[in-house]
């Protein structure tokens, strides 16, 4: 992820669980993206994170992915990613769909994934440990000292 300035975690506003078909789920996601882009006054999002909060019917998952890919092909979305509290399903989706670039995961969920190469670990405590294991790390920084500390960890990784 380089120079991200618009990230959407498509969750609350779109509900693909109730989709009646794969195409319906794709349409729901696509419509949600158009609505969000219009409301924030942007033409595209750099990253679209699809949340995996609970087990979803396969038609909903495949439809949401199809909608995300269509939005990507239209230039509405840059990278595709996963996030959410269901690491088992996220790990399966990440391994089965190469167009998903990464998963945003909590440190305690890393073990659900076969490889760390497509993970971004959300951990404010020690990003260096994840970087040394081959994962990328997403860290909140709030001061120049935090930036220096993270830079030192990255240099060591």
* Apparent shape: globular
Strand order of the largest sheet: 1-2-3-4-5-6
Mean pLDDT: 75
Tell me the fraction of residues in β-strands, as a range. Answer: 15-25%
Q: What is the subunit organization of this protein?
A: single chain
Describe the structure.
There is one protein chain. A 6-stranded parallel sheet has the order 1-2-3-4-5-6. The chain has 157 residues and is an alpha/beta fold. α1 packs across α2. It has helices at residues 22-40, 58-73, 87-96, 127-132, 144-156; strands at 7-9, 45-51, 77-83, 102-105, 119-122, 136-138. It has a domain at 7-102. The radius of gyration is 16 Å and the shape is globular. Residues 1-13 have low confidence and may be disordered.
List the helices and strands and how they pair.
Blueprint: E1 7-9, H1 22-40, E2 45-51, H2 58-73, E3 77-83, H3 87-96, E4 102-105, E5 119-122, H4 127-132, E6 136-138, H5 144-156
Parallel strand pairs: 1-2, 2-3, 3-4, 4-5, 5-6
Helix pairs in contact: 1-2
Write a brief structural summary.
Helix content is 41%, strand content 18%. With 157 residues, it is α/β, with parallel strands linked by helices.
Main attributes of the structure:
alpha/beta, disordered N terminus, six-stranded parallel β-sheet
């Amino acid at each position: 992820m380089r120079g991200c300035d618009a990230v959407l975690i498509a969750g609350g506003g779109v509900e693909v669980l109730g989709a009646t078909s794969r195409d319906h789920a794709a349409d729901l996601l696509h419509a949600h993206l158009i609505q969000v882009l219009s409301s924030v006054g942007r033409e595209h999002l750099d990253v679209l994170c699809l949340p995996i909060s609970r087990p979803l019917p396969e038609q909903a998952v495949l439809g949401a992915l199809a909608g995300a890919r269509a939005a990507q092909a239209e230039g509405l979305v840059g990278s595709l990613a996963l996030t959410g509290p269901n690491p088992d399903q996220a790990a399966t989706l990440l391994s089965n769909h190469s167009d998903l670039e990464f998963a945003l995961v909590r440190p305690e969920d890393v073990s659900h994934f076969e490889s760390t190469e497509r993970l971004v670990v959300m951990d404010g405590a020690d990003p260096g440990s994840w970087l040394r294991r081959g994962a990328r790390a997403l860290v909140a920084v709030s001061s120049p000292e935090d930036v220096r500390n993270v830079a030192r960890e990255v240099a060591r990784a």
